[in-house]
């Protein structure tokens, strides 16, 4: 019933060709300009942005971005949390053999719309959206990593695994890093901002730029077609580089 | 004139707010001298004031022993009035089953009474009490007015503690929060299981040290010579069904997380997992699955991952 009323309300907008935002947002126009440079876009249900309806732990909110409907067409995927003080999450470019699918955990500061914008080769942004509720405080909460004695000794340690599925392998990674976002008093920005996946012969499979909305001890998962070892390279804002290999 | 109308409107709008919030507590005699106030199996909400919990009291010869104090100052006060309506005897002891806000935030109404808890419970309440209370203000609103954390002032040791003819066996267990007290009345056979037992209401895991530890606790409790089980949440039972349901649910949840980790599933996938039909009658199972995956899955995941650094 409510949905029907809502559509009636939106009909005039449809008639004018204005896209109908699937989530209540006060910030869309701003981010359209800031991150997408006012380029042509669609709110597109084929981009699935999957998150729980509420953040049980606002410091570790699991997201799944699924743009496999556009397999072979994806140039890059941008994700952000609209009402975060630091909204950007990731710029993900799946290049070779890596599916346009990404699992990542993030911090949110309050209930917010989440967006995943997928740029396809025809120059159109396809925007997937969802809403998440939260008690809040995920971005300004003190680091858990930094309370653990000796955390520096484990900096950059990577845990990983390869999990064969029918048509691809799931690669999962967890990196020991505080991912300081600069919002906790007295602790400057210090986070992993670049990641690359390479295949055999150093072939670049995927490139990621990470932003401080990514949770501490970042978790990432990729779906990769074909066999062979995969190498992960990470770099943080202090210039340290970490490498790992998944057989 | 128009200002008067506005005033009238404001008055009408505010009347429901001014109406006294009343928990309407209805004590139920479940065994000799033993009473329970049964809460709903819903989540914390503004329409239930956080009364989602089972609270009990035993009227012993020297006085009343209260088991948990409820979610708010208002609840604690209502509980105390309810007790006074049943007996003239004084309240002589509060026993807290664990530190969660729905069980311990009524403490303010019992400041003049020894409030006993396991040492671990006091420590957890000290660490987390304020933030848990804040969260309840957010979820249930005005019912919480004036509620503050009051710390236990007595440390309980496992063993038998006697109040008149009621010998209460105190069990120190861990599965739900790391410090969980179960109380078995050897006189009546009533087992106050605290939140080690949820029945027809999905169990919660924010501070659980592990589902296998919890399963072991269930076996311990089931082995007692109980005649009646008072779960922390959900209906009272005279048969073993609450234990069977807990065993079934904990085993299922553990296996789900174990399988997910072995297959490399991510959290959103697990959150969408089908919930078996046999758990259909359990309130809030999807909601609690979302929470439990967040709490517990990282540990399961790590058991299925290896260090893979090639250089530092």
Provide structural commentary:
The complex is a heterodimer of chains A (247) and B (312). In chain A, strands 1, 3, 5, 6, 8, 9, 12, 13, 15 and 16 form a ten-stranded mixed beta sheet that branches. Chain A has two helices and 16 strands. Chain A is mainly β and 247 residues long. Chain A has one domain (23-34, 41-246): Immunoglobulin-like, CATH 2.60.40.10. Chain B has one domain (17-240): Metallo-beta-lactamase, Chain A (4-Layer Sandwich). Chain B has helices spanning 2-18, 73-86, 101-104, 119-140, 211-222, 241-262, 267-271, 285-303; strands at 28-31, 34-37, 55-59, 64-67, 91-95, 115-117, 154-155, 159-163, 166-173, 180-185, 190-198, 228-233, 306-307, 309-311. In chain B, strands 1-2-3-4-5-6-7 form a seven-stranded mixed beta sheet. A five-stranded mixed beta sheet of chain B has the order 8-9-10-11-12, covered by helices on one side. In chain B, α6 (241-262) crosses α8 (285-303). The longest helix of chain B is centred in the middle third of the chain and has 22 residues, at 119-140. The model of chain B has no long low-confidence stretch (mean pLDDT 94). Chains A and B meet through β4, β10, β11 and β16 of A and α7, α8, β13 and β14 of B. β10 (158-164) of chain A pairs antiparallel with β13 (306-307) of chain B.
Q: What are the SSEs and their pairings?
A:
The complex is a heterodimer of chains A (247) and B (312).
Chain A: H1 2-15, H2 28-36, E1 41-43, E2 48-50, E3 54-55, E4 61-66, E5 74-81, E6 88-94, E7 98-106, E8 112-120, E9 125-134, E10 158-164, E11 169-175, E12 192-198, E13 204-210, E14 219-224, E15 230-236, E16 241-246
Parallel strand pairs in A: 1-9, 3-9
Antiparallel strand pairs in A: 2-4, 4-7, 5-6, 5-8, 6-13, 7-14, 8-9, 10-11, 11-14, 12-13, 12-15, 15-16
Chain B: H1 2-18, E1 28-31, E2 34-37, E3 55-59, E4 64-67, H2 73-86, E5 91-95, H3 101-104, E6 115-117, H4 119-140, E7 154-155, E8 159-163, E9 166-173, E10 180-185, E11 190-198, H5 211-222, E12 228-233, H6 241-262, H7 267-271, H8 285-303, E13 306-307, E14 309-311
Parallel strand pairs in B: 4-5, 5-6, 6-7, 11-12
Antiparallel strand pairs in B: 1-2, 2-3, 3-4, 8-9, 9-10, 10-11
Helix pairs in contact in B: 5-6, 6-8
């Amino acid at each position: 019933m409510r949905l029907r009323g809502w559509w009636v309300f939106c009909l005039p907008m449809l008639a004018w060709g204005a896209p109908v935002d699937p989530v209540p947002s006060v910030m869309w126009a701003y981010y359209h300009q800031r991150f997408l440079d006012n380029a042509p876009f669609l709110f597109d249900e084929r981009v699935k942005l999957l998150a729980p309806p509420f953040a049980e732990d606002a410091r570790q909110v699991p997201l799944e971005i699924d743009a496999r409907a556009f397999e072979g067409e994806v140039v890059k995927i941008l994700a952000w949390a609209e009402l975060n003080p630091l909204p950007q999450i990731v710029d993900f470019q799946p290049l070779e053999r890596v599916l346009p699918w990404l699992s990542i955990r993030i911090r949110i500061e309050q209930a917010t719309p989440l967006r995943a914008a997928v740029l396809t080769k025809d120059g159109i942004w396809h925007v997937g959206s969802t809403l998440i509720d939260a008690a809040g405080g995920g971005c300004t909460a003190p680091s858990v990593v930094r309370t653990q004695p000796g955390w520096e000794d484990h900096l950059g340690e990577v845990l990983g695994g390869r999990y064969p599925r029918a048509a691809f392998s799931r690669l999962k990674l967890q990196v020991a890093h505080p991912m300081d976002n600069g919002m906790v008093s007295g602790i400057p920005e210090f986070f992993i901002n670049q990641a690359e996946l390479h295949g055999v012969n150093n072939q670049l499979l995927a490139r990621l730029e990470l932003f401080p909305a990514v949770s501490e001890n970042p978790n990432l998962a990729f779906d990769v077609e074909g066999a062979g070892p995969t190498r992960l390279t990470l770099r943080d804002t202090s210039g340290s580089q970490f490498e790992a290999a998944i057989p | 004139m128009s200002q008067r109308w506005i005033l009238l409107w404001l008055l009408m709008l505010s009347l429901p707010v001014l109406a006294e919030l009343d928990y309407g507590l209805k004590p139920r005699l479940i065994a000799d001298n033993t009473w329970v106030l049964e809460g709903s199996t819903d989540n914390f909400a503004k329409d239930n004031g956080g009364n989602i919990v089972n609270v009990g009291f035993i009227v012993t010869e020297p006085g009343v022993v209260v088991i948990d104090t409820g979610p708010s100052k208002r609840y604690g006060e209502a509980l105390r009035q309810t007790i006074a309506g049943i007996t003239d005897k004084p309240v002589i002891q509060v026993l807290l089953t664990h530190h969660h806000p729905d069980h311990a935030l009524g403490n303010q109404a019992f400041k003049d009474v020894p409030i006993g808890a396991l040492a671990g419970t006091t420590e957890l309440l000290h660490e987390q009490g304020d933030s848990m209370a804040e969260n309840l203000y957010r979820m249930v609103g005005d019912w919480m007015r004036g509620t503050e954390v009051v710390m236990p002032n007595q440390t309980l040791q496992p063993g038998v503690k006697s109040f008149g003819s009621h010998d209460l066996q105190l069990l120190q267990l861990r599965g739900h929060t790391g410090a969980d007290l179960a109380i078995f009345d050897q006189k009546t056979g009533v087992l106050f299981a605290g939140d080690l037992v949820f029945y027809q209401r999905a169990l919660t895991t924010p501070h659980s040290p592990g589902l296998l530890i919890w399963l072991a606790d269930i076996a311990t409790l089931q082995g007692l010579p109980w005649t009646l089980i008072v779960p922390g949440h959900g209906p009272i039972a005279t048969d073993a069904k609450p234990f069977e349901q807990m065993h079934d649910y904990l085993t299922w949840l553990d296996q789900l997380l174990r399988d997910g980790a072995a297959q490399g599933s991510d959290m959103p996938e697990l959150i969408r997992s089908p919930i078996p039909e046999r758990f259909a009658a359990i309130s809030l199972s999807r909601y609690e699955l979302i929470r439990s995956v967040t709490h517990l899955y990282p540990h399961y995941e790590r058991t299925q991952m290896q260090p893979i650094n090639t250089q530092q």
